[in-house]
Design goal:
The protein is built from nine helices and ten strands. Helix content is 52%, strand content 13%. Helix 1 runs antiparallel to helix 4 and helix 8 runs antiparallel to helix 9. With 402 residues, it is an alpha+beta fold. The strands form three sheets. The protein has a four-stranded antiparallel sheet, with helices on both faces. A four-stranded antiparallel sheet has the order 7-8-10-9. The radius of gyration is 47 Å and the shape is rod-shaped. Strand 7 and strand 8 form a beta hairpin.
Amino acid sequence: MAEIILCITITGKIFLPGFDTVNVNECVKSIETGFGDTSNYSDVLKYVLLGNDGNVLYQNADGLSTTINEAIKRGDLVLDLNTPEYSGAHIIFHNENNKIIESYKNRLVYSVILISFLQLVLILSYFLYLKRTITDPFNKLSSFAKRIADGNLDIPLELDRQHIFGSFTESFDIMRSELKKAREAEKKANDAKKEMVAKLSHDIKTPIASIKSTSEIGYELTKEDRTKEFFNLINIKSDQITTLAANLFESSVEDITEIDVNPSAHSSEEIKKIIQNADYLNKAGAFDIPPTNVFIDKLRLQQAFDNVFMNSYKYAGTDITVTATTDKDYLIIDVSDKGPGVPDNELPLLLEKYKRGSNASEKEGAGLGLYLTSYFIQKMDGELKLLSEDPGFTVRFYIRLS
């Protein structure tokens, strides 16, 4: 609309003055009365004086038409000039309208370019506004919902009331918090159940051992074959009860190993995205991942890096350094912080289930993060190593190249 209004405004103001009759007559009169004496010719207009043979007798400016054909093409005014001394001459008055029209055309083009540029700036600004207030927040909510579905409830959703999803963001984070509380309560209940099963297993084994030892003594003391069979049956059933109690205990604590890990070939660029997603507090500076192909399960690798970064946030609270190199078989990634670290003698224990460092007692945790991380990496045909620094702590990922 702005372009149309501008075009109408400019084209509506185009004014083509034409030829001023008074000035034309003045020039003609000056030539007729003083023909041959160019000092007496009027110069109020631009013109060319041609002889009857077509030769230029006089012109008062450059760039004018010097032939009749050229004058006609340019729209110049051509008049015959007859004097007593010289007949058959022509006067060609220069037409300025073409120059005026060209000037208006240039102004029109520049105006349209300017308006188009302003439109482009407006569209780009609006696009960035929509991206900031709708697209980006929606993508964050989508990614957050996927993490919730995957069971990752530790990473909070950043609150921002400056976009239309602000209230949803708060509601989503409240949902995450409540789910985390429910998950923690469920974990406590499961841990209590496991502890109860372990105690029951131990309590069952004690009387069963007494029954078994008593039956063995009875078996040796009795002389009757029938009684011996009964004592032998008691021994067999005691062993069965002991085995069942052990299986019950193992099944209650070994269910973690049933998590599926399905690695496949991916570009190492995916790992950079995974690390950036895990580092939601932006503690890690700029880092590069060597371009290569790796053998990973993206979902499980995301959980692995989430666990490592969450531990660093919780126990160190410092900046994090990420470095990556490759060797013949592995992409090696170090995630290092500057926290208090872990004593060397405790490093192997951290990869075991329900094991935590001695300096972590004041922090909430179950001792499963690094165990699961190591489990996932091993299922991807890789390896996880823990290194104690001075100061700090490093988790080293060996990710199989594809």
